[in-house]
Design goal:
The protein is of the alpha+beta class. The protein is about 45% helix and about 10% strand. The strands form 5 sheets. Strands 1, 2, 3, 5 and 6 form a 5-stranded antiparallel β-sheet that branches.
Length: about 800
């Protein structure tokens, strides 16, 4: 006969009550902490997650702050809201909060833990102790540390270790909070982790385990080398200081690097990456014929000095700095976008450093006509007060590679940044005020102040004009009204006093949740000194561009590394955080050091990267590295960006694209406005520049793109145009074999293999010459070898 389940449950309840009574009577027993015990339980079991009670609207009338970022708010919701129905002080085990969690009453989230679990015991203890709320006098939580048993970070496939997480407090105490910790794997296909912190390796690779407790996250990195050890010699060939960390990492992981790419591949790769242009057939033949041992270095140097370099990297920076017209109520127009584009061209042409460019953009003050970089603030501040706009998010993402947008509403779920940190940071831009007006009325101007200050200054100007009219009326027959004149003078004096007070007022922004006024402070929480009346952007720029600030240098070198190698050391490239470490920390260190020591010189970094052996590896994979997509054992082929692909088609066919409002022959990367009408560019994912996110530029291959290339009348017209490259080749080249070579050189930038040549010659023999040549040209334009950089 099966025992009655109600009797079993009653016995468990009785035992828990006895345990509670016993533990509560012990003199040394302390009441559970709401911040350090109760909130972590809610987080550990997902109660305050975004999919449950932590979402903005809550769940079934019960709302908690997302992952416990507002303990006082959570305490009130749990204990007092809805007349305290969620807690039963006299019978803790009958509390609705606990009953739903253990599944004895219906719960949309299902059973979260068992009645005899530590979580249930902790909640019962807390209720029995009188439900103490957040206490500002209790020890402050400082940091997390994570260790493993056995103590090892290099595992074999199938091997396991157990994690232990320790929380440290400002009174010197430490606690083992492993059971309260939420664990997650950076790559669950390499390493998996259980809720209890047991780590098990699944396949070769490397990743981190994140351990989250309260507002902090600790990480532990684990490496699972490949089983087969390549010969040592394959790791020895290196070209410069970037190769050492790469090949050392590959050796540790036992991943064999691919061989070096051939000359034709390097020429095409470097040309597309450095200047966004295909090499011409003449350039390909000349490079292949060049027998000098340093010809690749010479090529890199020449590419960095070509005018197309200026075009391409102006476009690249324009994407990063969101140079576009506003979505609504635009005050710059196409002319303003072109002015900023021209300004960026001048910076690139002069090889100004990234530090100089960033500093001038962020400190821009004045009218859009005189200071085109003001356009950056027009699109990021818009019509809002600066601290309520997108400017803080955009600056952090573009210049520091950091996503802080979620901290606007709640603490960052994967980083140390709190909601307070966000508004401290936004304070640096709180004195950016725009005097917006339609372009027909004049340029918009950025001043250092606030909207309130702008209104005061506007009224002051109006009152001064009024005073002039009253003191010297145009109609001499009108009697001067001395009383009105005196009132206007008093108003002018009052406005001048208010303006002075406003200008000298302490720079602060209001934290919307707490109402607290917060002063500007960097994201690393260091203290800055702000003089009375000083533009708060000035100390921010000094902090941001300081050599010691790895976020500033790292954000750019990571973007450059991804541009040339296809994958950033940190992915996504604009998501730098302690919990998302670089795949090669030593390479990260070398790149940052080179960038800083060379005064943030962009060309220096490009030259260094392109001259590395790592960049010059073939895209062809080996048996040992075909799965590698993180450690640069081979070149990562990638689809050309929308603008570069369209320019490549135009260059190959000899037929330019037309853009309304621009001269014939202008290339896509030279067009300043991202909203210039082009079905092709939209189809292939050009960046709209509406946010600072690198994800805006799409390079994934889609079915509509493939169908467009295969069926586009525009592409066919370019291939078959009477003024195009193919028509000229058919007229000037009688030899079919030579014609085939030229078509290959114009599209794939290499000579055809002998098997390819013979296959195409057979087609020439069985069909008309013009049709076969056009079919060949069209077919090559549709290959991945053409549409990808490899």
């Amino acid at each position: 006969m099966m025992p009655d389940l109600n009797i079993i449950q009653s016995l468990i309840v009785l035992s828990l009550c006895l345990m509670t009574a016993h533990s509560g009577s012990a003199a040394e027993q302390t009441a559970p902490s709401f911040q350090n015990d109760i909130v972590p339980v809610l987080t550990r079991y997902g109660c305050n997650s975004g999919g449950c009670h932590g979402k903005l609207a809550g769940q079934n009338g019960f709302r908690l702050s997302l992952r416990g970022f507002a303990p006082q708010q959570d305490y009130e919701s749990m204990t007092w809201e809805s007349r305290g129905r969620r807690i039963s002080p006299l019978a803790p085990l009958n509390s609705l909060l606990l009953q739903k969690a253990i599944g004895t009453v219906p719960h949309g989230g299902g059973r979260r833990f068992d009645i005899d679990s530590p979580a249930a015991q902790l909640l019962v203890d807390w209720i029995n102790e009188g439900m103490p709320g957040p206490d500002i006098d209790e020890p402050e939580f400082l940091s997390l540390s994570i260790s493993s048993t056995p103590d090892q970070s290099v595992l074999k496939p199938g091997e396991s270790v157990t994690l232990k997480v320790i929380a440290a407090y400002n009174d010197g105490t430490q606690r083992d909070i492993t059971w309260l910790t939420s664990f997650a794997s950076g790559d669950p296909t390499v390493i998996e982790v259980t809720e209890e912190g047991v780590v098990r390796s699944l396949r070769s690779g490397e990743t981190v385990i994140r351990a989250a407790f309260r507002e902090q996250i600790a990480i532990a990195q684990f490496t699972v080398p490949y089983e087969r050890q390549p010969e040592a010699i394959v790791f020895e060939a290196r070209s410069n200081q970037l190769d050492g960390p790469v090949f050392d990492k590959l050796r540790d992981l036992r991943i064999e690097p691919s061989s070096e790419c051939d000359d034709a591949t390097f020429l095409r790769r470097a040309s597309l990456d450095a200047i966004g242009v295909l090499p011409t057939p003449e350039e390909v033949r000349a490079f292949l014929a060049d027998e000098r041992s340093d010809k690749r270095q010479r090529l890199v140097d020449s590419l960095l000095e070509r005018p197309e370099f200026v075009d391409y990297w102006t476009h690249w920076l324009a994407d990063l700095l969101q140079n576009r017209k506003e979505r609504d109520h635009d005050v710059r127009g196409t002319k303003g976008v072109r002015n900023f584009h021209t300004w960026l061209r001048k910076q690139v042409a002069a090889n100004r450093s990234w530090k100089q460019i960033a500093s001038e953009v962020l400190s821009a003050t004045g009218s859009t006509t005189e200071v085109p970089a003001v356009g950056y603030y027009i699109v990021t501040v818009g019509e809002k007060d600066a601290e309520q706009s997108e400017v803080a998010d955009s600056v952090a993402q573009a210049f520091l590679g950091t996503r802080i947008g979620c901290a606007r509403c709640h603490n960052h779920p994967l980083e140390k940044y709190t909601q307070d940190d966000y508004y401290h940071f936004a304070g640096f831009f709180s004195r950016v005020a725009l005097q917006r007006q339609n372009p027909e009325a004049g340029p918009t101007e950025l001043i250092i102040g606030t909207r309130h200050l702008l209104n005061l200054q506007k009224e002051l100007g109006q009152q001064r004009e009024k005073l002039t009219e009253l003191e010297s009326p145009a109609d001499v027959t009108v009697k001067v009204d001395n009383e009105q004149i005196e009132n206007v003078r008093k108003r002018i004096e009052d406005l001048q006093r208010q303006i002075e007070e406003t200008q000298n007022r302490k720079v602060e922004v209001r934290q919307p949740r707490t109402g607290e006024m917060l002063q500007p402070r960097p994201l690393d929480r260091s203290e800055i000194t702000l003089a009375t009346g000083e533009d708060p952007r000035s100390p921010f720029i000094a902090w941001m561009t300081a050599p010691a600030n790895e976020a500033f240098s790292g954000a750019m070198v990571n973007r450059l590394w991804k541009h040339f190698l296809g994958i950033g050391l940190v992915e996504p490239v604009d998501d730098l955080r302690a919990t998302n470490p670089p795949s090669n920390p030593e390479l990260w260190k070398v790149l940052n050091q080179e960038f800083v020591e060379n005064d943030f010189d962009l060309k220096h970094m490009m030259r260094l990267i392109m001259n590395s052996r790592t960049y010059q590896l073939a895209a062809d994979t080996t048996e040992s590295n075909f799965r590698d997509d993180r450690f640069y054992s081979h070149f990562q082929s990638r689809r050309l960006s929308a603008e570069v692909l369209l320019d490549a088609i135009c260059s190959a066919t000899g037929q330019p694209e037309s853009y309304a409002g621009y001269p014939q022959g202008i290339r896509a990367v030279q067009v300043p406005d991202p909203f210039t009408d082009s079905y092709f560019l939209t189809m292939f994912g050009r960046a709209p520049r509406t946010t600072a996110c690198a994800c805006e530029q799409e390079t994934d291959v889609t079915l509509p793109q493939l169908l467009h290339l295969q069926n586009s009348d525009e592409l066919t017209a370019k291939v078959t145009s009477a003024e195009g490259r193919l028509a000229n080749l058919l007229k000037s080249t009688e030899d079919d074999s030579r014609l085939i070579e030229e078509v290959y050189l114009a599209t794939l930038n290499r000579l055809p293999s002998e098997s390819e040549r013979q296959a195409v010659l057979k087609q020439f023999a069985g069909s008309t010459r013009d049709e076969t040549a056009a079919d060949l040209f069209w077919a090559l334009l549709n290959t991945s070898e053409f549409t990808f950089n490899h």
